Model the fold of this input.
Amino acid sequence: MPSVCFYFQVHQPSRLRRYGVFDVGRRHDYFDARLDEAIVRKVAARCYRPMNQLLLELVERHAGRFRCAFSISGSAIEQLERWAPEVIESFQALARSGCVEILGETYYHSLSFLASADEFHAQVQRHREKVTELFGTRPAVFRNTELIYADALAPHVERLGFRGVLAEGADAVLGWRSPNFVYAAPGDPDVRLLLKNYRLSDDIAFRFGDRNWEGHPLSAEKFAGWIHAVNGCGDLVNLFMDYETFGEHQWESTGIFEFMRRLPDRVLEHVDGSFVTPSEAIASYAPAAELSFPRFTSWADAERDLTAWLGNAMQASAHRSLYELRDAVMRSGDADLIEDWRRLTTSDHFYYMCTKWFSDGDVHKYFSPYESPYEAHIGFLNALADLALRAGA
Amino acid sequence: MLGAANKVLMLGWELPPRFAGGVGIVCGALTRALARRGLDVTYLMPQADPQAPGRGVRVIGADRVATLGVASPLHSYASSAPPVRVPGEAVPPDGTPLYGANLLEAVERFSAAAVDSVVDEGVDFDVIHAHDWTTFPAGALLRHSSGKPLVAHVHITEFDKSGGAHADPRVFAIEQAGMCAADLVVTVSRRIAETCISRYGVDPSRIRVVYNGVDADRDDRGPGLPLRPLVLFLGRVTLQKGPEYFLRAAQRVLELEPDAHFVLAGTGDQLPRMVETAAELGLGRRVLFPGFVDRDRAAELYASADVFVMPSVSEPFGIVPLEAMDRGVPVIVSRQSGVSELLRNALKVDFWDVEDLAGKIVAALRYPSLSHHLRDAGREEVGRMSWDAVAEQVQRIYQEVARA
Done:
């Protein structure tokens, strides 16, 4: 039976308040801390607290045999420290157990790699410092925002001292190959790639509560059977998903918590059943081959590309305008200004401007605090206009 | 067994070129589109114009009504306030209000004459389709005499026109009787459907919402005005259309965009008041009042406009923003309009939120990434709202009533 490698993403953005054009040059408070607080408290109650508790129980009960990984964005860490410190404490307890690995990412959950290598390095370093300080462990494996990855990222990952990187097991990249092996980055063989098994991951993340899905209801036995079926054609199954899958995207009433409570028993009852963290996977399994990602790939949507964040002209223009200000902002040496600018690099701001489904009328496909992508765009540009004034750009 | 539903007797109060408001345009476009689908449409109105709206449509007038003093231009949507003279506005030759108390009388005469006209002209029809209260009594009479099903199409109600407080009880009663007599009630928005349910007691199962369409009409761009940037309001200048919010937003916009120009086009009882308000707000030469504009002048304004605003306090549908979008003008509509229910690629505001409106006008003027996207996506969106698609929906409704 292949090893199971769980990775959960924890992220919260700093959301913009309704920042109007008449505020430009007059006030500089772009962010809506009260909205962030309300959301993080709600998600903590429904997901972070009960799920951390459950994972702690699993770690204890299985005496080290249940293992998993987290990536927690810097902005999420800050919000949890401020409004749900007990969640930070339970993450620390999980990290102390030695069964839970914390991954590296960009502090602001940004698209910085696509715009500025300097900014990317700065944000990854800052995140590593924060994680090291908080959890006493230095991240050794990297995951870029939304699993965005291409060959071009590998040398940067290596230079930053990571042993591996997580990516989407996209059909367009894999072709006939399986996501259930460790791969090596071409040209940077010391950088290993762990690829999301999107079918099995999405069975939990997207389809678990769907009564029209043929797999419904999904029991731990059934799912462990599907993992077992990989036997012989894979070393590990990478189950990568948003942590909010548990209790937020899939409500408690779907039975998602019970499923997770039982799954380790069903996996570990096989003689060769095991869980591994990403670092352990890289240490345990030799790469099956080199695998090239010529184009940027992400874990989003059917397209598995960048169009959710930079697909339309509003998004591309807003992102370009933001990075055009970077030099002036950094030169200012103004810590508040730099912090505000960096919070605007968070990918969510661009996601809210996405029109992919909006034009077809399916606005609910995308979670957004805005009535429309246009509102999101206007608010972002207004804030940017003020930021440019402050930066003297 | 399916009843035949190919021959339609359409009852309208206005029809281009003999029209006063948006409803006439809507009736004309719908009639043409139904004819394009191969339906046989006879359009009965108080006074027919020899110029038919298109092939396959026959227009007849209930002429006896016409000779009874309902002179052109017909204006069923006039308020009962005394008419206001605006420089440049066309006024009836005798300068008297056309309707008011007379309108009810004219409606009554039209109803009686309609049955006779249909018989005299030998009109053969499967379905009666009546537009708004002025033709509902005629529709009900024809339904009674012919036994053919009646579709009552509600573009606006007395309740919307008056804001509820001053609804004319006689008009209200006629509307209610028409909706009650109809086999199905068609409304132009959910907003109007809700009014029909809550105020007129119509059973929700008898209501179908059919949004208006828009016909591509992009070839008539004028040379444009040398006033840039330009913010456009185009519609009747009445309380219902919220022109004052447009002017108050203009004042705020000018603080940030001192070069902006504002055109408040159209006429109505609030126009003199708006001219005064603009002066009080110190808007000076930044606001222009061209009065009534015909289609050519409207095309010229669209060609010049950087953003179109419809700040209506209450709007059953609101077709003008679709025309603006079709011509590539970014639009801002009030959430209190029916059209905001279906538009995606438009900016939306609450009519009273002048600050939000001003902010969005400035955004549309300042941020090309925004205005270009609104322009392109808006055109595409409106391109899908063809009258042909609307006619298809309406035809299904005819089949539904014919079957029952």
In short: Strands of chain A lie at 3-10, 68-72, 100-102, 141-143, 164-168, 183-185, 188-196, 236-242, 274-275. Residues 125 and 258 of chain A are 37 Å apart (CA to CA). The mean pLDDT of chain A is 95.
